[in-house]
Every structure is written in structure tokens, then in C-alpha cells.
Write the C-alpha cells for this entry.
Amino acid sequence: MAALQTWHDIGRSAACLLLMHWLLLTSGCVSDKVNDRGKLAAYQRRLAARGPQARQDANDPNAPLGLLTPVDTARKAVPDLKIDVDPNTGRKVAPLSLDEAIARSLSNSPEIRVVSFDPEIARHEVTKEVGGFDPAAFSRINYEDQDAPPQSSFQAGQAENRLFESGVRQRTVLGTEWSASYALSRIWDDLTFFRSITGTRYEPMVIFQLRQPLLRDAGWEVNLAGVNIAKLNYEAALQGFRERAEAVAAGVIAAYWRLAQAQHDLQIQRELVEQTEETLHKVAGRRDIDATDVQIKQAESYALSRKATLLDLERRVTDVQDALARLLADPQINTTSELAIVPTTNLESPVSLPEQAVLLERSLATAVASHPVIQQAQLGVKVAEINVEVAENQKMPRLDLVASARGSGLSKDRIEAHDQIGDWQYATYGIGVTFEYPLGNRERQAEWLRRKVERRKAVSILQNTADQIAVRVREAMRRVQTSEAQVKVQAEAAEAARVHLRALEESEAIRERLTPEFLLVKLQAQETHAQARRAQVDATAELNVALTELAQATGTVLNLQTVDASVSTIVDETAAKKEGDEQKTPLIKPWEISPSF
């Protein structure tokens, strides 16, 4: 019997050790870390850490435009611009390169800052979901004083009970709910019948309870669903931030080239107006020789019409400049600044088109792999798949394994009572199963079917999004190719118009008579030359804008050299390189959970 008792004790101890080891593995620390490596995530964190842009006090009566006016801060991501003053007009002039414009917009744009907080919110949501697996300590103190007429000799009339209990409970990634606690009761009553211990006595207990789902709510796929969905939502929020950053960067590039185009057009028109006024002066000078009033008025009509076009181009320059200033949102260049922006980056055609502008299949593959909208739709499909798995599990019957173990002692002496627990003199064990089957089960069945439909919808959204992006890529490629062809054609047209006008100017010096008819032909040639030059500038600007829109359609704006360099001025480049390239946040697997010891 002694040997049998020894083997019984050994088996009981081994079972306890295995149980504790299993609990340590399944209730380990679930990580709330997301994959925020790479320059994009570092850029997002930097903007979110800065908070809203510093602006003047909107409630200051001395600064009515305070809400619209950014202010300088101690920490600047980009250096100040050198502001010049035009000696002719006295107006402030800000020379601005394309790199500087992109850097300022990526550092200051309110549009980007608004979405920079979304990944931070999603990051805290991940921590919140992971917190559901944190252990919780609990305690209770209870005092009960009883004074009632005894109904029999087996029932105490007066009693006093003081209870203290403290322990730990936790839910694991397998759905296990366990708790371990220690309780101590100090009991006194007036019941002495059939009791060897009278008066005050102590009853300590060590209690362990466990509930393990076997069907519904069982498995790491179900219990980690909230954490994994939160991590996927973080990825989606980061892609949303990337989409907005690319849209703003592309908008700045387009606005910059539009401003350069408008200023070139304005300069060409000014030269045309000067040439027209010179020709008009010559026609008017021949009034008493051979120029009629009709011819003079015709020349004046040319001059006035070209001056009206000049005024319209001046307005256009201001409009485009305001659009660029809004995107920059810089303390020096914003919607309230009174200065002229002068683009210093030359507007010219690229030497060769990028590969994605030539190879359609490569462009479509890049868009599918890189476009943030497609990435968000793919993440939506993953979330829907997790919801289907959870709903499928929830429509199963509930079958739970329940187990408990309790060691207790009872003595008038507190130390002796605890020694009884150490010797495990009074041990109680229990094990069993509980079963629940929902009759009909229509609620969970409907939820499962709804989740399946949502997954089909998510797949359809992904496919529809991919088709829309593909159309945008094809349209952007055709626009690039058309713009490239137009640049060549317009360059030839401008050269032909220049040669024609130069021939007229050379013949003017050797003509015997400077007739009004000749001067009117010269006016028309000047107009044709100016229009051809403007068309060449417009085609060049259109090509540069089309290349930017193609990069936006394929989701590679942040990979452009100018944009990447601008982001590097904002982000700590050394830290970003150490973190490595950006990757997807992996979903949690059970073998990736670190034990809590």
C-alpha cells in the first residue's frame, strides 16, 4: 500500500508539472508589436509625434488669419528659403526647386498629418486586443457576523467569519481560462456538537480552477482573431497614410510643373505683346504714307487682344501658385503669404522614359504589387477570412473541460493549518465536461453565412479595385506616350514658326517698301511663333505631369528619386536603414508566443 501511495503521489506531481508547463506555454506574453520598419513607417511616426502643425492663435484679435498661418518651430525638417525682393516691383520672390517643394509639402501638409494619426490609433488598438490575454490579479476581503436562533443542534446560532482571498487569473490563446488563488478564513461559531475543534479556527485553502473549451471558442485561430485583425487594420491604416502621402507628393509635382508652365507662357506672351506694340508703332507711323485707318485699327486689335490674354495668364499664374502654396503649407509659403514663387528646376523633357511607361505588363504588375488601394483591399480580404473562421467556430456546440484542485487545512493554530496544506493532507480534485447545444442555432448560422457573404464582397472589392487601377495605369501610359509624341511635334512646329518669323524679320531690313500688309503678316507670324512656343512648353509640362500620374497609378510615387530624397530629409536615415525594408506585419502563430517566465 505504501508503494502504491508513492506511485500515486509521483503521478499526481507529474500531472501537475505537465499542466503548469502547458499553461505557461499557452498563456505566454502575446506581443503587441507591429511591423513598423522601413522609411514609410518611420516617416509616419515622425509626423504623428509632431502632432498638429503649429499655427498662430485663431482667437487672437490682432491676428484674424491666425488659423491659416503656420509658424516656425524650434525643430525644422527643412531649412528656410532665401526670400529675395524684386527691385522693379518691390514684391517678395521665393526661388523654389522641385526638391524643396516636395520636402516642404511632405513635412507640413495638413492632408498628410490628418492620416498620420490613423496608424497610431490602430497601433493602440492592437495593444488593447493583446491586453485581453494579460493576467489579472484579484483579491477580496469579506466579514460576516451571524446572530440567529439555532434551528437544531447541528446549526450554529452565532458565527463570525473573516475571509481573505487573493489570486491570479488569465485567458490563454487557446481559450483556456484558469485561476489560482489562496484563501484564508478565520471562523468562530458556537457549534460544538460533533466537532473536535472549538472556538476560533483557521481554514487556509489553495485553489486552482481551469476551463478549457474543446469546440466553440477553442484554438488560437479564434482567440487570436481580434489581435490579428487589429494588426491587419494597422497595415491598412499605414497603406492609407501612404496613399495620401503619394497623392500630395504627386499633386505638388504637378502643381510645380503647372506653375513653371504658366510662368513660361506668361513670359512668352509678354514678349509677344512687346513685339506687337513695336509693330503697331511701325504701322501707325505709316499713317500719312500708305497705312489706312482700317489697317491701323486691325493692328491695334491684335495688340489689345494679346494684352487681354496676358492679363488672363497673369491670373493663371496666381491661381496655380495658390494651389501649390496650399499643398506646401509652409511657414514661409502658404495661403496667406504675399510673395511670388519662382521655380528653379528646369522644365524639360526626360532623356528617356522609365521602363514602366513603356512596358504595359510591367506597369500593371507593379500596380498590383505596390498600389496602396489594392493593398488595402487585399488586407480587407484577409480580415474577412478571419471573420469567417471565427463565425464557423462559433456555430459549433459548446463542449468545455472543467477541472479544479484544492488543498485545505483546518486548525486552531494558523501555522499548523498551513502545514496541512504543505503536506497536502486534505486535497480535493474535480474534473468534468459541460455541454451546450443550441437548438436551431439560427443566430450563429446566420452570422456564419453573413461573414461568408462579406468575404465574397471583399474579394469582389479587390477585383473591382484592381480593374479600376489597371484602367488608370493604361490611361496614364497612353497619356505619357501621347505627350512624348506631342513634345517632338510641337518642338518641330516651334522651330518652323521661328524660322518663318526670322525670315520675315530679315526680309524687313532689305525691303524697299514696308507696307502695312507686310506688317500685318508679321503680326500673324509673331502670334504663330508664340503659340507654337507655348504649345511646346505645355507639351513638356504635360509629359512631366503624365509621368507623375503614372507613378501615382502604379503606387510608386514615394520611390521617385526626388520624393525619396525629400522623405529622407524628414526621417532619421540611419535609423531607417537599420530597421530594414518595410514588410507586412505577420499574423501571430501559437509557436511565436513567448512563455511568461
